[in-house]
Amino acid sequence: MADPRLTGVLLVGGASRRFGSPKALARIGEETFAERGWRILGEACTERIAVGKSMDALGLPFDVVDDGTDVRAPIAGVVAGLRAASNAVCVFVPVDCPWLSAPTVRRLGADVAVTQTGPLPGAYARTMLPELERRLAVGELSLRGVNPTVVRVDEGELRDVDVPGDLRGELLD
Length: 173
Hints:
By secondary structure, this protein is an alpha/beta fold. The chain has one domain: Alpha-Beta Complex (Spore Coat Polysaccharide Biosynthesis Protein SpsA, Chain A). The protein is about 25% helix and about 25% strand. It has a seven-stranded mixed sheet with strand order 5-4-1-6-8-7-9, sandwiched between helices. The chain has a two-stranded antiparallel sheet with strand order 2-3. A hairpin with a 2-residue loop joins strand 7 and strand 8 (about 120-125). Helix 1 (about 35-45) packs across helix 3 (about 100-110) and helix 2 packs across helix 4.
């Protein structure tokens, strides 16, 4: 059941240099990474937003909010997502984290927490926006330390995809 107080934000703005093509359009089974992330966020949250770069023109089956910066860093997407969200808490999911589950998204949101592996995927509250905006304005692009609350989740869900070889032999249900 989707949490009515939670916004899910899919981050689709990565440069995908090591992957060689846009990760959002990579496929596992019948879905692209972007479609899968969008579906999982829909199962966990009542509001979904995708954030990226309009200039990337990915042709996704949902709208993408432009992050409004020239910066290619997750912090730009987090700032844009928090600004666009209707809810006070957002869970941010990078498009290259296709094994994340809806229960984990809900847990991150309920605890307003990040995972043990780092700041993404993770939940950020609107109250964190001034610090995030400050960092972005001065070119401090790290999300580390903004949300100090950490929850442990299944490490298998947190595997990201950096190169095509990371997908060999992997199937999603």
